[in-house]
Amino acid sequence: MAIGKFNFLSRKLGFTTSFNVLLPDSIEKDEKVPVLYLLHGLSDDHNTWLVRTSIEMAVRTKKIAVCMPEAHKSFYLDMYYGDQYYSYISSELPEIVAKFFPVDQKQQYIAGLSMGGYGALKAALCNPDQYKAVGSFSGVVDMASHVADSGEQRRDFFVRLFGPDLIVKDTSNDLFYVTEKLKEKSPPIYLSCGTEDFLYAYNVRFIKHCEEQGIRIKYHEEPANHTWDFWDRQIKSFLDFIGV
Known about the structure:
- By secondary structure, the chain is an alpha/beta fold.
- The protein has nine helices and eight strands.
- The chain has an eight-stranded mixed beta sheet with strand order 1-2-4-3-5-6-7-8, sandwiched between helices.
- Helix 4 runs parallel beside helix 7.
- It is globular and about 55 Å long.
């Protein structure tokens, strides 16, 4: 397994950014392998999946590349006051990865934890033909409720993301709204959350909504909190889910 760090000047972001990449040792000449875009959480960066989990060991014997990009505290959005991370993650990054690494653009997957779970779902549900499956582990899946429940304490943070009126509901940033439009056109979803997690109720609400829309979804819950030991188990479960 090869591990590398890639730096480049992003045209979408307007500055130099980084991502880590895992590549199988056994890639043959002219062979292309599936790629998983693995997104970090709010307090993390592009290094944290490597440092806090066994992702490198989990894919060591598998023919799949893993790309772990940096997104700061953007929630992987085209921010109202800030940078264009949704456009970067869903459009520019796959082009860069395919240009420099032997990946199959027809076999793209995306997953993430917490903030990254939201980012993965938004990218996949807004671009349903681009990803073969999506995974969210303890994801912020009900953004409209999350913003409302945060109150004034985090208002300035959310204003940067959504603007002064904090409009989320019934927009492309509202996963409930997006899934209503998609229904059976959605890529397969793997969703998981610990029953002790502060995001648990949001995830239960979202799973029920997806089932009502006829969306293909596998849901897993267990007694767990918003912790890395849970996410370490879940990335392995997601790899099993996508069959690599």
